[in-house]
Amino acid sequence: MSKTLPFTLLSFSWTVLASWPTCIVPITSTPYSYEVPSWLSLNYSCTGSPQVWEARPSRGKGIGVFATRPLDPGDIILAELPVIIIEPPLIRDGVAYPLTSVEPLLQAAFDTLSEEHKSAVLSLHAHLTPEEASDTETRLLPIFRSNAYLVGSLMSEFGLFPKGARINHSCRPNSNQVWIDKTGKRVVRAIRRIEEGEEISATYLPLLQSRKERQRALSQYGFKCTCSACVLGKAEQEASDKRRNDIRLAFHDFEPHLSLSVPQSVADKRKAQMNVEASMQLVKLLEEEELSDYLAPAYRIVALSFARIERWDQATIWAHKSYNLRLAENEDAEGTLEMAALTSQFISSWNEELYNKSKQQG
Ligand SMILES: *[C@@H]1O[C@H](CO)[C@@H](O)[C@H](O)[C@H]1NC(C)=O
Ligand SMILES: *[C@@H]1O[C@H](CO)[C@@H](O)[C@H](O)[C@H]1NC(C)=O
Ligand SMILES: *[C@@H]1O[C@H](CO)[C@@H](O)[C@H](O)[C@H]1NC(C)=O
Ligand SMILES: [Zn+2]
């Protein structure tokens, strides 16, 4: 028995339509290409620093990273080489990695750094366990534990990025961070419009959890989140928690429906039609919760749902939207190549459909 989708379809709203792209993908059977419309792709000349962020204290709060100019989705905020990379010994199956065993490696890597990098590393925030707090010698390990990210072609190494590490957490982040193996850099990008002077935020944890669950996970970083999703009144908080749970269930429940096979029976066709509406409801929930980082997989679901009812025009538009977001992140990633292939395939079907129609009329 297939699971029912968690949405009330009757409350489906058409507001999503208002944000459809005004650009229509050209109908072509030539290989698919797309130009990135970002200020970064232009040869702009300007006076002053091209740096689009600054780390500074903000009133009543500690240090944060703030935008020094307005940023559009996809704009690069920061592309940073790790100052330290640690390749840890192999992890035995089922055994949590003993972080203390990287300490000698970490110390050796640290000792080779320039004075500038050393002080950048030591100035990072670390949440200390009681034992660590009583030991003033070993700041390096807690700093590394609190700030390092998985990097490398297999994502099996740990990298430390002192600039990106200054970006604070939000449960409605306006940036994401992606490791680009080709350049060996971690790239921070805007995932929605960011105004000049606005704080840049990222997430330290998966966001499809209730506030309570998020707060519990964040306590290991030693702070209580006060982002806009965490300071809501009771009713709004419950609505937000419910939306996040519905989104999580929707991603899960859609999984078995994401093939390209066109359903044959009347009942299956009806279900596929309902899935189209549920997929757009998923996008709407993400927009309401301001979870921009989950839009690319959601657009993919909408595209595939339209393909299953043979609406090739809509399948193309939504696949193209997903492709654009993936492309901005990483042109070589599997997800990007998949969306390029799907967009191309849907354009061909759309072409064929139009050709069939013209023959019927003629
Ligand atoms: C940008 O400038 C570089 C160096 O001046 C030049 O090689 C390149 O062709 C320019 N790109 C565009 C799109 O004009
Ligand atoms: C950013 O995070 C640090 C470390 O948790 C904290 O001390 C600081 O107050 C935060 N800054 C802002 C602007 O919220
Ligand atoms: C176009 O017509 C052909 C032949 O009738 C059919 O096999 C094909 O599925 C049609 N394609 C589309 C996209 O409707
Ligand atoms: Zn929060």
CATH class label of the largest domain:
Mainly Beta
What is the arithmetic mean of pLDDT? 82
Structural class: alpha+beta
The rough form would be described as elongated
Strand order of the largest sheet: 3-9-8
Bound molecules: 2-acetamido-2-deoxy-beta-D-glucopyranose, zinc ion
Largest sheet: 3 strands, antiparallel
**Integer tally of domains:** 2
Tell me roughly what share of residues is in helical segments. 40-55%
Strand content: 5-15%
CATH fold annotation of the largest domain: Beta-clip-like
Q: Would you count the extended β strands for me?
A: 10
Order of helices and strands: HEEEEHHHHEEEEEEHHHHHH
CATH homology superfamily name of the largest domain:
SET domain
The rounded Rg comes to: 23 Å
Poorly predicted regions are 1-48
**Name given to the CATH architecture of the largest domain:** Beta Complex
Q: Tally the helices.
A: 11
User: What is the terminal-to-terminal distance?
Assistant: 45 Å
